[in-house]
Prior knowledge:
Blueprint: H1 3-12, E1 16-18, E2 24-25, E3 31-32, E4 34-36, H2 45-62, E5 68-72, H3 76-87, E6 91-94, E7 107-108, E8 117-124, H4 128-139, E9 144-152, H5 156-165, E10 169-174, H6 175-185, H7 190-201
Parallel strand pairs: 5-6, 5-8, 8-9, 9-10
Antiparallel strand pairs: 1-4, 2-3, 6-7
Helix pairs in contact: 1-2, 2-3, 6-7
Amino acid sequence: xxxxxxxxxxIAEKIITISPDKSFTYASxxxxxxxxxxxxxxxxxxxxxxxxxxxxxxxxxxxxEVTVIGGVATAGIPHAALVANELNLPMIYVRPKPxxxxxxxxxxxxFSENDKIVLIDDLITTGGxxxxxxxxxxxEGGNVIGVSSIFTYHLSDADKNFETxxxxxxxxxSYPELLKAQKNSGAITPEQYETLKTWHEDPWNWE
Length: 207
């Protein structure tokens, strides 16, 4: 597994930025000491390769019966395409809503009711968008056996949402793992580590 190399590259290229002393504001209004833009990973061939190999291996380990890889539009599509290629499996992708022209499709690509689909997104915060994609796929007769992602904040809201939906979730990297790696490398102080850990415990009331 390339976990340490992936984390180091994500930080070095500022694809993930940790700022314990000055927070970022998300669209939801949440204040956070971390900003993540995993769309940038596709611009780095070495990083992209490490992620795809580890993500493919993780999916085969957690969901060995998978027959179709799905991407959640738009950020999950390139990663799903590369994982599907790595595993030599068919691919589909799921839009947030059906097209308003043509055949009005929400899902592109072919699958049958006998297929076992794993959906991929780049980042999981609460899991809302990917679980909507699960619902859309199952509405069209698909059988989604799980969800995977490059990174998750591993918030309790997400854990509850996946549990309520009855959908298994297997992320490659998580916020607690990232913090531990940063602490062990000396990139953040023990005091900063505690500050960053506090956000994870109660993100909506952190500042």
